[in-house]
Prior knowledge:
The protein is an alpha/beta fold. The chain is 25% helix and 17% strand. The protein has one domain (4-367). Helix 2 (44-55) links the parallel strand 2 and strand 3 (63-67). Mean pLDDT is 93; it is low at 1-17. One 2-acetamido-2-deoxy-beta-D-glucopyranose (NAG) binds at residues 244, 257, 263, 320.
Amino acid sequence: MLSVVILAAFFFVATFAQDPNVGVISLSKLNILPEDVMTAGCSHAGDFAHQFHVAYSELVNRGSCVFSGQPYHCAVTKFTRDELVTQTDESSVPRCDGCPPGKTLIYDHCKNHPQFVDVGALPDYIRRSCDDHNQQTDCIDDPSNLFDARIFAFQPTEDRCYIPPAVANVEALYGQLVRSPGKQIKYVEEFPFAHTLPTNDTAFWNDTEPAGYDGPGECLRHVFDEDMFAGKFHPRNVHIFDQTEFFVTSPPDLASNGTGLNTRGTIYIPSDCETERCRMLIIASGCGGPFPTFGGADIDFIKYADGNRIVVVKPCVGGYFDAERFPNAAEVSRGLLDVYGQLSDDYAWQSGFHMKVFGRIIKRLVHG
Ligand SMILES: *[C@@H]1O[C@H](CO)[C@@H](O)[C@H](O)[C@H]1NC(C)=O
Ligand SMILES: *[C@@H]1O[C@H](CO)[C@@H](O)[C@H](O)[C@H]1NC(C)=O
Ligand SMILES: *[C@@H]1O[C@H](CO)[C@@H](O)[C@H](O)[C@H]1NC(C)=O
């Protein structure tokens, strides 16, 4: 009899240990100050931080930090000065607004040829592509929500992926959307870093000594418009959460699975935020496989978050990608966010594949 109990106990422990979802939480509403939600990111995640901010400006109404990012919907917009190439399955720009049939834009034209970009034309799409911002759901929130947004934009002088002054176009786009650009936007373009989100430890390009530029601190102090000191990173405050409960499952052509979304994301909840109202920072990105982690500059953001009552949520890509369904999506297939229009025409709207799931995650945390 005893052996049966022992065997049963052993069996229970063994199956429990094998369950890959052990320790994975389901997100629930937190005590978030709705007026203090912001995004940040670098490179494709910088593009996305800005894209998510603009499309969900009602939800993300504090602001954004764009470290090496390109302007909203710029990747697929043809400007007068653009040179065109033949559309093929390898072009990486499967969609183009304004190109003749069979032609498309040079891949990454807003990053490699910032002089092509007509910044004055960019607000049109944001203001006019949804019938009525209050009526049409899943589109782009009314950009008047951005009037008071605070923006930090960072352009390293030695960035070979976002050739200077590519990020100045993000600054200039926000300049047309906020009330008082001189006060609300901080544009930093003088530091000789390579393509990076610099932390205290990062060296300048072709150098080895830490330059001591605190990118996360500069970003947070500007966006929240207050002095802030870094606290400590406490691993016990890190949780992995299930993203699949936010997936769209039907109709099949809108299914989230197969679009590169990860099954899990990760979140840092400072101890104070169990009881007190907190702000929130969204840093959507690739997250290093099925068990997402915080790494690199995330840790410095978290040090500030812990000391200043900010929840840090990291919705993740880097999951299953179906190349048959999306044949022309080289960047998304290697784990990047869709900031290129590779998955759908509405990639930059709330209804875009990545945008929709991440929007649901943030709404759950803020509104339940
Ligand atoms: C990079 O640094 C090395 C050592 O300081 C120097 O010799 C070299 O000229 C630098 N390269 C460039 C392209 O500036
Ligand atoms: C996604 O689709 C793949 C391939 O069909 C399948 O193996 C996987 O279990 C699916 N994941 C989810 C979360 O539905
Ligand atoms: C970066 O260095 C400054 C100056 O020493 C310090 O005040 C700040 O807390 C550091 N940032 C982080 C995230 O540790």
